[in-house]
């Protein structure tokens, strides 16, 4: 039995190495399969959508000028991933095997009856009040298969050092709860601006980035999500992008393996990352491509002008993401409806199905294999104590192809 486990783990590691050490096997396998089916027109509606959107891929939208600064009012999530031992979060028996960092594998019993929703890792941003380990308990209480959190206070530069005891309690809680390293995405503090024109702010941001990546390493995490930055209206977009990339490169030199995940923004004010071209330009200047990725926020994308509310607009956005950035860089999703209209450039999150994006858009997301195996995090408004639990159930219900609007429960 042990020999078969070792052989299986070795086979998985070889496949991962041949493709790209950065790619995670669970989600990438689904995306590769989807691309093959797409070429044969097996995916419903793809061929007609592709023909109608091909000419628009090369066009660039003009950036709206504004003197307003980035709005950080919405609470956002984080995710924890990548430890030496990886496993898929399911109740039945799972056999775990130790592998090298960066390579993820799960060896399952042949007789397990896995349901389709296990391909999606849905959760929410949870609190670290009372200790980091409490985030795990809260995630379990809402039925999450993924979760996000801050690693420290998100609204101040100063922070207490991470204690060894706290780190061990967190790792022990994750192990007992069977949370996979591919299911947790920590979020950076709001004050960081790695593209800032102000030297003091830039210096503090770079120190914070290194500090938080090191915290991730001590907690056994491999993903770290943060907002790229802002020009503050004082430097060009190109100059700010160069500073962001330089900040990432410097942080990578001082840390070991954590992937820095850039979040797409809403084009509000002078923020960077609302356009996929800006994310691509940052990635192009990052030296270690295996340590950079993107988290796709649905509210931000809609506010930036990507019409994900319609089927045609959703496919157009995903085609543009694939050709401009690359699906191999997709490391997470923030699931948020939008209070603002399409292209409003306002970062205003709404509960799923209650905003301008609508239920059907999230149903498409939930049934799209390109989002398999990556953390999908709710950052919707906290309107009731069990709101996240309800939304998680509703999102998983959307994957049932036999149900339509009956899968939506009014809140």
Automatic annotation (TrEMBL):
<feature type="compositionally biased region" description="Basic and acidic residues">
    <location>
        <begin position="64"/>
        <end position="75"/>
    </location>
</feature>
<keyword id="KW-0378">Hydrolase</keyword>
<keyword id="KW-0255">Endonuclease</keyword>
<dbReference type="GO" id="GO:0005739">
    <property type="term" value="C:mitochondrion"/>
</dbReference>
<dbReference type="InterPro" id="IPR036237">
    <property type="entry name" value="Xyl_isomerase-like_sf"/>
</dbReference>
<feature type="compositionally biased region" description="Polar residues">
    <location>
        <begin position="43"/>
        <end position="56"/>
    </location>
</feature>
<dbReference type="GO" id="GO:0008081">
    <property type="term" value="F:phosphoric diester hydrolase activity"/>
</dbReference>
<comment type="similarity">
    <text>Belongs to the AP endonuclease 2 family.</text>
</comment>
<dbReference type="Pfam" id="PF01261">
    <property type="entry name" value="AP_endonuc_2"/>
</dbReference>
<keyword id="KW-0227">DNA damage</keyword>
<dbReference type="GO" id="GO:0003677">
    <property type="term" value="F:DNA binding"/>
</dbReference>
<dbReference type="GO" id="GO:0005634">
    <property type="term" value="C:nucleus"/>
</dbReference>
<dbReference type="GO" id="GO:0006284">
    <property type="term" value="P:base-excision repair"/>
</dbReference>
<dbReference type="InterPro" id="IPR018246">
    <property type="entry name" value="AP_endonuc_F2_Zn_BS"/>
</dbReference>
<feature type="domain" description="Xylose isomerase-like TIM barrel">
    <location>
        <begin position="138"/>
        <end position="395"/>
    </location>
</feature>
<protein>
    <submittedName>
        <fullName>Putative endonuclease 4</fullName>
    </submittedName>
</protein>
<feature type="region of interest" description="Disordered">
    <location>
        <begin position="33"/>
        <end position="77"/>
    </location>
</feature>
<dbReference type="GO" id="GO:0003906">
    <property type="term" value="F:DNA-(apurinic or apyrimidinic site) endonuclease activity"/>
</dbReference>
<dbReference type="InterPro" id="IPR001719">
    <property type="entry name" value="AP_endonuc_2"/>
</dbReference>
<dbReference type="InterPro" id="IPR013022">
    <property type="entry name" value="Xyl_isomerase-like_TIM-brl"/>
</dbReference>
<dbReference type="GO" id="GO:0008270">
    <property type="term" value="F:zinc ion binding"/>
</dbReference>
<keyword id="KW-0540">Nuclease</keyword>
<keyword id="KW-0862">Zinc</keyword>
<keyword id="KW-0234">DNA repair</keyword>
<keyword id="KW-0479">Metal-binding</keyword>
């Amino acid at each position: 039995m042990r020999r078969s486990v070792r052989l299986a783990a070795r086979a998985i590691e070889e496949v991962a190495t041949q493709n790209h050490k950065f790619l995670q096997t669970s989600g990438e396998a689904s995306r590769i399969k989807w691309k093959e089916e797409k070429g044969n027109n097996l995916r419903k509606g793809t061929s007609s959508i592709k023909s109608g959107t091909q000419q628009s891929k090369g066009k660039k939208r003009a950036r709206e000028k504004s003197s307003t600064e980035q709005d950080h009012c919405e609470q956002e999530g984080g995710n924890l991933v990548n430890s030496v031992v990886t496993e898929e979060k399911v109740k039945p028996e799972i056999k775990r095997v130790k592998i090298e960092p960066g390579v993820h594998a799960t060896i399952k019993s042949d007789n397990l009856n896995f349901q389709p929703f296990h391909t999606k890792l849905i959760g929410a941003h949870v609190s670290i009040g009372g200790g980091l380990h409490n985030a795990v308990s809260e995630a379990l209480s809402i039925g999450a298969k993924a979760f996000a959190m801050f690693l420290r206070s998100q609204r101040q530069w100063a922070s207490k050092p991470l204690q060894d005891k706290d780190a061990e309690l967190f790792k022990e809680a994750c192990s007992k709860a069977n949370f996979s390293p591919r299911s947790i995405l920590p979020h950076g503090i709001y004050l960081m601006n790695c593209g800032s024109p102000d030297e003091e702010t830039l210096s503090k941001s770079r120190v914070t980035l290194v500090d938080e990546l090191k915290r991730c390493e001590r907690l056994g995490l491999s993903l770290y999500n943060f907002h790229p930055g802002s020009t503050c209206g004082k430097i060009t977009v190109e100059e700010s992008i160069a500073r962001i990339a330089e900040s990432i490169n410097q942080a990578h030199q001082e840390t070991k393996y954590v992937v820095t995940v850039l979040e797409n923004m809403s084009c509000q004010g002078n923020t960077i990352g609302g356009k996929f071209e800006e994310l691509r330009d940052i990635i192009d200047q990052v030296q270690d491509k295996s340590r950079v990725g993107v988290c796709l926020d649905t509210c931000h994308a809609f506010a930036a002008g990507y019409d994900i509310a319609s089927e045609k607009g959703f496919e157009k956005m995903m085609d543009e993401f694939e050709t401009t950035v690359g699906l191999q860089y997709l490391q997470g999703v923030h699931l948020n409806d939008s209070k603002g209209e399409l292209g409003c450039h306002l970062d205003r999150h709404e509960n799923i199905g209650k905003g301008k994006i609508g239920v059907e858009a999230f149903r498409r997301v939930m049934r799209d294999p390109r989002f398999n195996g990556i953390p999908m995090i709710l950052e919707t408004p906290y309107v009731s104590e069990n709101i996240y639990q309800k939304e998680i159930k509703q999102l998983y219900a959307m994957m049932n192809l036999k149900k339509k609007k009956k899968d939506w429960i009014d809140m």
